[in-house]
Design goal:
Layout: H1 3-14, H2 28-42, H3 56-65, H4 71-79, H5 83-89, H6 94-99, H7 108-128, H8 131-138, H9 157-172
Helix pairs in contact: 2-7, 3-7, 4-7, 7-8, 7-9
């Protein structure tokens, strides 16, 4: 035991104060599992992603195998956009997306992009507070983005990174 812990232990026993220990606090592992489960919900839940997501290894595996086309409808709903707009964000024609069967798997690049967009949506909802408020923010022109909407920047990884930083500044209360 460290010196500081020994000192705290002695002080609490001498004052008959019990140290505060919160037994029901979630562990880091439980928090991460919750985070990945939220991501799974954004992707359509049990209907589209059968396997539970518990970490980055599961996302890598999912990227390699591909996700079902049906996940796109759920993601479009969370982004408050149409399938046409979403297909543009994926750098694919709407017609190519339409041709796919609902159960057909997307290729690796599209799957990675969908996972990146879903993670961004999750972060946005977490920071802004609700799905509806996040959708409104996503479609509102912002001065910090040259009067363009955040949705305008979701077609590139660099745009998603920039918007994620913007969300971080909002979370910290920095005017952006």
């Amino acid at each position: 035991m460290s010196y500081i812990w020994e000192k705290i232990k002695m002080e609490t026993h001498s004052k008959k104060i019990k140290p505060y220990i919160h037994d029901s606090a979630p562990s880091i592992v439980e928090e991460a599992a919750f985070q990945y489960e939220t991501l799974r919900v954004i992707l359509g839940g049990n209907k589209t992603v059968k396997k539970s997501l518990t970490g980055t290894f599961d996302l890598i595996s999912l990227s390699r195998t591909g996700i079902k086309k049906s996940t796109l409808k759920s993601l479009a709903d969370y982004l408050g956009t149409t399938m046409e707009t979403l297909s543009g964000l994926l750098h694919s024609s709407y017609r190519n997306i339409q041709r796919k069967d609902e159960e057909e798997l997307l290729d690796t690049l599209k799957t990675e992009k969908v996972l990146e967009l879903a993670a961004f949506a999750q972060r946005g909802i977490e920071v802004i507070g609700s799905k509806e408020s996040f959708t409104e923010w996503l479609h509102s022109p912002l001065i910090s983005l040259g009067n363009k909407t955040p949705l305008h920047f979701l077609d590139t990884s660099f745009g998603i990174q920039m918007l994620t930083k913007l969300l971080g500044r909002l979370e910290q209360g920095v005017y952006s």
